[in-house]
Every structure is written in C-alpha cells, then in structure tokens.
Amino acid sequence: MMTIRNTFVRAGVDVMLYLILFLLLQILFSSAAMLVGKFVEMGPGVSMAASSALSAVATIWLFAYRRWSPYSRRYLAGRPWAVLLWVVLLAFGSIAPSEWMLEQLELDMPADTLRLLEQVMATPWGYMAVGVLTPVAEEMVFRGAVLRRLLAVTGKKRHWVAIVISALVFGGCHGNDPQFVHATLVGLLLGWMYYRTDSIVPGVVFHWVNNSVAFVAYNLLPQSSNGTISDLFGGNQTTVMMLLLFSLCIFLPSLFQLSQRLRRIEGES
After folding, report:
1. What is the helix (H) or strand (E) element at residue 103, kind and residue range?
2. Burial class of residue 73, CB neighbours in 10 A (0-12, 13-18, 19+)
3. CB neighbour class for 230 (10 Å; exposed up to 12, middle 13-18, buried from 19)
4. Nearest to 139 by CA among 51, 210, 45
5. Cα–Cα dist 184/179, whole Å
6. What is the pLDDT of residues 7-36, one digit of tens each?
7. Which residue in 71, 144, 146, 174 is a FRET match for 230, CA 20 to 30 A apart?
8. From the CB of residue 86, how many other CB atoms can be counted at a distance below 10 Å?
9. Do 19 and 169 contact (CB within 8 A), yes or no?
10. Which parts of the chain have pLDDT scores under 70?
C-alpha cells in the first residue's frame, strides 16, 4: 500500500514540476517582452507573439532535453498519412459544434485575454507562435509529459482516469471559463489519440488545425473574435443548424475512422 501511495505521490510531484516550469517560462518571456518593449519600438501584438514563440521554443527544448517528453520516429516511420488526414478532418469538424456549445453556455472570454489574443492574431508573427510553435509545445507538455506520466501510474485498465485528469489540467491552464471548457473537451480527444498511438504527432496535427483556423478566421473575419456563429450568418438560425449538421457529418465519421485505425496501429506496435 505504501509503495502504491509513493508511486502516486511521485507522479503528482512530477506533474506539478512540469506545469510549474511550463507556466514559469510563459511568465518569464512575457515579462521580458514587456521590458524590451519599453526600449525597442514594437507593437503589442509583435511583442506578445515574440514572447509566446520564445517561451514555446524554450519549452520544446527543455522537455526534449530532459526527455520528459521522449521523441521517437517510430510512429511516423509507419507512414500514418491516412490517419493524420482523418485527424485533420476531425479537427475541422469539431470547431463549429464547440463554438456553438460555448455560446449556449453563455461563456465569454475575459476582455483583457480577448484583447491580448486579438493583438497576437493581428500580426503575421502571431501565426508562428499560435499556429506552429504552441501546438508542439503544449502537446509535449500535456500529452508527452503529463499524460505519459499519469498513464505510467494508472496503467491500461484505468487509462481514462489519466486522460480525464490531463484534459482537466490542460483546460485549467488556459485560465478562463470558455477556454477551460473547450480545452478540456479537446484534451479528451488529444489524450485518447496519444494513448492509442503513444505519439504526440496526431495531437500536434489536431492542435495545428484548430489554432490555424482560429488565426485565419480572425484575419478574414475580424468580427468573429467577439461575435457568435449566428452573428456571422446574420442571425439566420437555419444556416447555423446546417453548419452544425455539416460539421457533425465530418466529425462523427472521422471519429469512427480513427477509432478503427488507431486500434489497429496500437495492436501492431
């Protein structure tokens, strides 16, 4: 009993270490960007994008160097291109239903957080931070490190316990209600894919699509950042329902395909 308890305690300490370092790097580079911004003329968007990109790079380096998120070419060596295509479709299909659900729950992002996000989205440098580096860094931390450590404790029989905990931690680190709900639900999918493949690659692809769509949508439709899906279609609820139905027709078949294909990959590995 004491050995089991010690094992859980050690896992908890490791997870807390990962999260503290992840958050400290973000705070450190954000503070550095604000300091540099006082001496170098740059817009707030460029400054925030630079700090996000640098913190992501530092996170990737640290977690790879310490092997908290082990890197292996084994998964990509299997040429899982069809699986990754279904991951892309799954990500596309999840966006509209997720946004609609948040609207029904009447969860609004804090004004300060929304303003900072808009500033980052408004600069091309923001895509490198939000669309490319952040997905890799967060998947390394929350799936490659946190979930991997939790799975080592729970084992295969209770893998969903580890997946749910890691998803809640992922949501909580976003720091506000709408992102908590969205990130937690997405975290369940990302954790499930990681458990099936023992690789962060599917999660990085899903994360990349989700963040890239948000970036493109903001730059093509700036009003989408604080509007609703209904607003985008002039309040036409029929169009909104058709969009949701279309999205589910992508999401559900993609989820089914992945449940079949990832099961086969797990069996072969």
Report:
1. helix 81-104
2. exposed
3. middle
4. 210
5. 8
6. 888 999 999 999 999 999 999 988 877 776
7. 174
8. 22
9. yes
10. 1-5, 36-44, 222-228, 230-231, 233-235, 263-269
